Structures are given as structure tokens and as C-alpha cells.
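Deliverable D4.2, example record:
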Amino acid sequence: MLAMKILISLQLLGLTLLCVGIFHCQAWPRYTFVVEETPYRRLCSKKNILTVNGQFPGPTLYARTGDTIIVDVYNKGNRNITIHWHGVKQLRNPWSDGPAYITQCPIQPGGSFTQTIMFSSEEGTLWWHAHSEWDRATVHGAIVIYPNKGATYPFPKPHAEFPIILGEWWKEDIGQLYNETIQNGGEPNVSSAFLINGQPGDLYPCSKPDTFKLMVDYGKTYLLRLINSAMQEILFFSIANHKVTVVGSDASYTKPFSSDYVTISPGQTIDLLFTADQSPNHYYIAAKAYVGGAVVYDNTTTTAILQYNGNYTSTSTPSLPNLPSHNDTKASVHFTGSLRSLADENHPVDVPRKITTPLFYTLSINTLPCLNNSCAGPNGTRLAASVNNISFVDPSIDILQAYYYHVNGVFGTRFPNFPPLLFNFTAQDLPLYLQTPKQGTEVKILKYNATVEIVFQGTNLVAGDDHPMHLHGFSFYVVGWGLGNFDEDKDPLTYNLVDPPLLNTIAIPVNGWTAIRFKANNPGVWFMHCHLDRHMTWGMDVTFIVKNGKGPGAQILPPPPGMPPC
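Output generated by the structure prediction step:
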């Protein structure tokens, strides 16, 4: 072991000089992120929360397509932290991707890490957030990626644009909530409020004076960069008396379509145009939970105010939008199923047609036995989650370091391509023995340039639920979806291979399926997980290792200096 430590130290020393040349030789834009505890008051009480630079939500990063930016992260908080740049593909550079124990060990209190954010084809709205325990509840912010200079949006230029970040707030400390959930093995407490740009809104106590206001001029068109940073809930979003036009999602342009409401999953971004074409007044902007499964949820509604400029007499109470009901799965999938890639001459699609690596992944809620049936899960068990019946376990050092330096014993390579047991995945009554998963740190190895299809199949084990799955390092085409069990003979005939949406996060509907395709042309270690944080913590995760290709442009970059120690 001592020899391994010496070898790694020598390798890091030699690579530091090389990496300085690779990562820091150019005059790239540079940001400073100081993670620190800051007192904030919400819902009539004050508590300390982790923030970046004292801001909640955190600062917005700005870039253009293909840019590289540097972010110096200093941890002056009271616990370990990592930062993930959600949706940035980071070509050949997993070292700065951010998920704890996957591509790095956490930045310890008092430590720092300089991260290099390498944009490529992304254009539109993404976001950044903590990727350690549940600290992303307050450690997050927007990323705005403009077209290259001289290029334009594929829609009329808006009069102005605004990031709109949807979130959740707990009166209790988020670290305490995480620890309690881990210890008792049950569902976490539901949030105390939803938020729009950090504020609960008029319908919550002690919140009305600070409600976020969006000021608009009559007749002007605006771009909203909508981000769902909520921890545990898919959300419905709407503006009273105003339609929105969807023009992008996950930093990829879409064919425009008009809607009265939006369904947005945790992790997802959606770009919306709306025109201030109603009688000058005050109108509520609102969001509430969509919950397809039989789980406890926060049934409150967060609001902001769309306020027209000018001289007029406003109504005493703004009108609320007509949001779908909390369990309206039809409304949820209708919106998501309406997304289509722009697929024009300047924004072509490249959907893999010949699949070399077909994968079928079941997504399940599970249970594990608990000593003396003393946990808070069903019948005294501990709640878990799995992909293909494997509940992921974090290693003690990050998988990327272990892979790059050939450290044995950190992970296995036998993640199954198909579920080990076949059954009626969406049946109402399933045998109890199916609920217990295997636990392990298994990864899936992909050859460079493999063309991959993953069919995600939700199951009804314990309790069926929606699963917003996020893939690091890639965008993928959503070529098909449906409710019930996937039919391998009939359903592929309905795939959209002409203009499927290009996303990085997609909600697999409750007791349904979704098919995605991508090309594994980004060497490195890349995480995939459910973006409902309780499911991720319970083990609904997969790690991919994409092997190096031939030639220097198909090789993982060497590590930068100053990687956080394990």
C-alpha cells in the first residue's frame, strides 16, 4: 500500500507540470466560489445554510458555446462538499465533474479545489449544484450558455431574460435531515415549502413581503430559464392567464410548442418564451408537486408575481394559474412527450441507428432487513433502491482515481446488462422476496464510440414512482416512452428517430418505461442516477467507465493538480 501511495504521489507530481499547461495556460474566465454557512430567514424562523458567496440561490455563471471557465472552490463550511456542473459534458475531463466518491473525494472543510469547466455543444440553460449528501438544497445556481459571437437564437430575440430556479426549503437543518434519514431507514420528512428564486411566496407565513416579482412591459416577449433544483419532487409550473412557448431543454433547442403549464423534473432545465399580452395587472407564477406514486409529499404551492409596469389599478389578489392535479400522470407525460429536437440545418440531430450495446435497466424501490425490525421502512425494514437489483454503495476512494491509477478492490465490473430476474414489473401484487436487492459497487464498462440504447423500466416493487434519471458526461436522445411494461417486439416500432429531444435528465413515468440512445464518445468515469435525492441515496445509481479510444483526442485528460485527498 505504501508503494502505491508513493507511485500515486510521483505520478501526481509529474502530471502537475503537464496539467498546468493543459488546464491553466490560457486566459479563461475565472470565478471564485466560497462555500460558507450563512444565516437565512424563511417561514418565520432563521437558520444557517450552506451557500456559495453568501448567496441563495448562488451566483449565475455565464459562458458561450465551446468556452472553458475556471472555478476556484474554497470550502469554508462545516462539512465536506463537491460541486457538479449539471449537463456540462466535460469532454475527456471527468476530473472536474464533481460527484462525491465517483470522480473525486470531497473537498474537506478548509480545503479547496480548482475545477475546469469545459463546454462543447451545450447552448441554453444548465445549472451547477453540490453533489455531496443533500447539500444541493441550498448550494446551487444557474449556468447560462449563449450562442457564439455572431450567432443568434433560433427564435426572435427576447426583450429580456430571467433565470427562474424552483427549489425546496426545510425548517430543519438539511445535514440533520440527511443523517436522520440514513439512521432511521425511512422516508425523509417532506419539505416545509417550495421556492421560486429562493422565496416561498405569498401563500406561506412570514413570506409575502419578500415574494419574488418579475417586472414586465406590456407587449414585450421574455425568456425564462427554468431550473428545477428541488430535492425530492417533480413540479408543475404555470403563469396565470399566460401561455408559454417551449424553445429549449437541457441546453439543447427544441421545436417550439405552446402550453398552459410545464412539467419539470429535478435536474432538468426548460427555456420558455412568454409575451406580456394580458391586461396590465398582477398575476401569480406558481409551482407545486407532481407525484405519480403513493408517497407522502409536500402539498403546498409556491408563488411569485408577474407584475406589469405602468399606471393601473391592480386587483387586490392576483389570480392563480390552473395547475394540473398533484397525481395527474397524463398531464405530466403529455408535456414531456411533446418535446422534440429542433432538427434544422444549423441544429442537426445524430441519433444512433445501429446499436452495439443494448441495455435494459429496471428501476426499483427496495427494502433491506433491519436489526429487530427497528427501521422506519415498511414492516421495520430499511428503504433502498436499485438498478437491475443492485443497490449502489459508495466506495472509500473515488472510482475515477481507482480506475486511472489501477487501484484494485475499489469496484467490480460485473454490472448486468439486463435484470437478473424477469417478472411482471408493474403488477399490483409482487412477491416480497423480490424487494431485497444486492448491494455493491459495480460499474458498467463501455467501449469507446459504442452506440448505446438503455431501456429504463420502472417497477412496482414496494411502491412505484417516477424516476428522473440523469446521465453525467453525455446528452442522450429520448427515442421512446410508454406506460406499463416495455414490449421488445412492438415498442421499438414506435421510436422517434427523426427529431427526438436531446436531454441529460429524463423522468421515467411511474410504472412505465423510457428508451434513450447515445454514443459513448467521452472517455472517463461517468455517474448516472435518479435525481430524486432520496432514491440516489438509497442506491438507484450506476457508474459507467468509457474506455479510451485511439489517438490523443480520444483519451481521458490527465488529472489536474490539487485533487482533494481521500
